[in-house]
Write a structure and sequence with these properties.
The chain is of the alpha+beta class. The protein has 23 helices and eight strands. The strands form two sheets. Strands 6-5-7-8 form a four-stranded mixed β-sheet.
Length: 468
């Protein structure tokens, strides 16, 4: 079989008993995390825009979108909106392999799952959902690992979520019951529908940042659209991953490690490389934020006690992430001064960071003015190296002259430094407690294997399981 055929065969024939129990448990945690992130952002301006876009682009339909009492939409439009909302606070999951952050798969693939579930009369079983997520995430994570460019090409062109259209198509296709030939066409169609790589064109120097940051929403939309088109017998590329003109070139890479897609498939699980964020901000800021978090806790200093905050980090963070006047919460998620100040004010990581009260807080902006960042040669070398480590050192200076410093090289929540189950569930509880009547019961239902295997007769189970 060709490379594309091998992967399609894996995705189409995967069974629940083929997925190791620890991987199944991890998939459930990522599901809980993504839904929590979606509810946390459901009252945000981004969510309002996403829902308006779903209505405009897809009208009304059977697929639900985050928000109380919201109308349903068509599958592709709902997937677009839900992915945008899950990613709305930049608190959603990622993939980390060999130190590199490789996209936000949960927002695209779980949004695709939500839309597909709502298109299946009577709902689906928990096993069906787990199989679909395992197949989609496994191929998604292997694909982005296989197409990693050289450092030189990374500096020229890169995208972190375009490939997620293929993963989303696999998830939607398995839930919709596509057979292997139709799933094959769906993956080819998803690649055709992918948007172009754009990481370096986010308006870094011309804020505000682009609304479709991270590309997760177009990828989710493309994946669901591709699965539905395949179900209508649309023909897609059958060798989309193969050869010198394969999908890796479409994604802008200058190299392709095809063996990563095949070696150990079904035995060594790349789905296990998923990472879960502690802080609602760009991953490139995670080390600086953790340093600040530790220092605030260790010193006991309050914002008014701090005369200045000094950050040593890699060049991009010191230059592109020092926005002191963010135009909106999206810009704030990529602002080192804003997010550090939110921690100094002891705000719990989550929606509180970007509430209207916080976003317009004079105390927060006064503290932002006391934050400086500079490029450190060691951190820059680590970021430019094979591991792309976004490290940082933070130094707090008290008004009386005392100071304290903390350093981190690898983000917390990454594959190398994973969050434990308790921290993940506490995060989901914070993110959902204002929106779901019984958030703990909702999480327990997903984690409880006895209930998980039952059929979910209400197709809204992923959007509002606790309220059903």
């Amino acid at each position: 079989m060709s490379l594309t055929q091998t992967l399609i065969h894996f995705a189409a024939t995967l069974r629940i008993e083929d997925i190791p129990a620890p991987t199944q448990h991890k998939l459930k945690l990522h599901l809980i995390d993504a839904i929590g992130c979606g509810w946390a952002a459901s009252n945000s301006k981004v969510a309002g825009s996403a829902r308006a876009a779903a209505m405009l682009l897809g009208g009304q339909g059977p697929c639900h979108v985050f928000g109380p009492g919201m109308p349903g939409h068509t599958g592709p439009a709902a997937a677009f909106a839900n992915a945008l909302i899950i990613n709305g606070l930049d608190h959603d999951d990622g993939v980390e392999i060999d130190g590199k952050g490789l996209g936000h798969p949960g927002s695209s693939l779980i949004a695709a799952a939500m839309a597909a579930m709502d298109l299946v009369p009577g709902g689906i079983s928990g096993d069906t959902l787990l199989i679909a997520l395992a197949a989609g995430l496994e191929i998604n994570n292997r694909l982005i690992h296989a197409v990693q460019p050289s450092a030189e090409r990374f500096a020229q062109v890169y995208g972190i979520a375009q490939h997620q259209a293929v993963g989303a198509a696999i998830v939607a296709g398995r839930i919709l019951g596509l057979d292997a030939p139709h799933l094959h066409h769906a993956c080819g169609l998803a690649a055709t529908l992918s948007c172009v790589p754009s990481l370096h064109k986010y308006n870094w120097s011309q804020r505000p940042l682009v609304s479709l940051k991270d590309g997760v929403a177009p990828a989710a939309q493309a994946g669901v659209q591709a699965a539905l088109l395949a179900r209508l017998d649309f023909v897609g590329s059958l060798d989309v991953l193969d050869g010198d003109q394969g999908y890796w070139r479409m994604l802008g890479s200058d190299r392709f490690a095809a063996d990563i897609l095949e070696n150990g498939l079904g035995h060594h699980w790349h789905a296990d490389y998923g990472s879960i964020k502690l802080y609602p901000a760009c991953r490139w800021l995670a080390c600086a934020l953790e340093c600040m978090d530790i220092l605030v806790e260790a010193t006991g200093w309050w914002a008014d006690d701090i005369s200045r905050i000094e950050v040593r980090t890699f060049r991009r963070a010191a230059e592109d992430f020092m926005d002191r006047t963010p135009a909106n919460p999206t810009d704030a998620q990529f602002s080192l001064p804003y997010t550090l100040a939110a921690l100094a004010l002891r705000l719990p990581p989550g929606p509180a960071w970007y509430s209207q009260e916080t976003f317009h807080s004079p105390e927060l902006y006064a503290l932002m003015a006391r934050i400086e960042a500079c490029t450190d040669d060691d951190f820059e070398a680590r970021m430019q190296g094979s591991g792309r480590q976004p490290g940082a050192a933070v130094r707090l200076v008290h008004r009386d002259g005392r100071h304290a410093t903390e350093t981190r090289h690898v983000p917390i929540g990454s594959a190398a430094r994973p969050l434990d189950d308790t921290a993940i569930l506490e995060k989901a509880l914070r993110n959902t407690q204002a929106h779901l009547p019984q958030p703990q019961a909702w999480m327990n239902t997903i984690l409880d294997n006895r209930r998980w295997h039952d059929h979910w007769h209400d197709s809204r189970s992923l959007v509002g399981l606790a309220a059903v």
